[in-house]
Amino acid sequence: MIPEAELIRKEFIIRELDTPPSISMTKKSLLRWVCLSLGLISKNETRDKGFLVFDSLFNFIFSKKINPTTLDLQASIKEKYNIEMSEKLIRYHLNRIIDLGLLKRENNKYYINSSPVSENRNSISESFSEWTKPLVEKEIKKITVKLSELEKAYSQ
Predict the structure, then answer these.
(1) Helices then strands, each counted (H, E), the chain
(2) What are phi and psi of 140, to 5 degrees?
(3) 32-58: string of b/e by CB count within 10 Å (b at 16+)?
C-alpha cells in the first residue's frame, strides 16, 4: 500500500455518460444510467443485486411514500423478484448511497438525506446538489492546485 492511501477520507466516482432519449423510457434503464453515472455499479456489472436494492428502495420512498427498513427491502425483493438476499448485502448497497450523502439511516429506517433548504424532503436531486456536488467541486479545486504544484516541481 502506498503511504498516501491512508489519507483517503471518501471516494467519489462520477462518470460522463451519454444521455440518449431511450434512457428515460423506462425506470429500469434510468436506474441503470444513474447507478453507472454515480459509480454505484461498475460498467462490467453482471449481477443485478444492487439494482434490486435500489429499485426496491426508490419504490418505497418515492412511490409508496414509506421509509423502509432493511427487512422491508428484503421482503420486497423476495416478493417482487423471488430472490433471497441477505441483510448484509442489502446494507452494503445502501451504504454506498449513504456514502454519497444521498441517503441516511435513522432508527433502522432509510430516508433521503434532505437538503435543509429543500421544500421537498424527498428530493434526491436536491440532496445530491446539497451534499455531494459541493464535496466533488472542493476536491476538483484541490486536485487543480496539486496539479499546478506538480507541474512546477517537474519544471525545476
Answers:
(1) 6, 2
(2) -60, -40
(3) bbbbbebebbeeeeeeebbbbbbbbbb
> What interhelical angle do 87-100 and 70-81 show, nearest 10?
120
Q: Which residues pair with 110 in a beta bridge?
A: 105
Q: pTM (2 decimals)?
A: 0.87
Query: Which three cell numbers mark 54?
Result: 435500489
Mutual angle of helices 27-37 and 49-58, in 10-degree steps = 110
Could you give the CA distance from residue 56 to residue 38 in angstroms, rounded to a whole number? 18
What's the grid cell of residue 103?
Answer: 441517503
Helix (H) or strand (E) holding 110: strand 109-112
Evaluate if residue 140 carries a pLDDT over 90: yes
pLDDT of residue 97: 94
* Percent of the chain at pLDDT exceeding 90: 79
Angle at 142 (CA atoms; ends 37, 98), nearest 5 degrees: 40
CA distance 53 to 55: 6
- In this prediction, residue 108 carries a pLDDT of 96
Domains of the chain from N-terminus onward: 48-155 (1.10.10.10)
Higher pLDDT, 18 or 117: 18
Is residue 45's pLDDT more than 80?
Answer: no
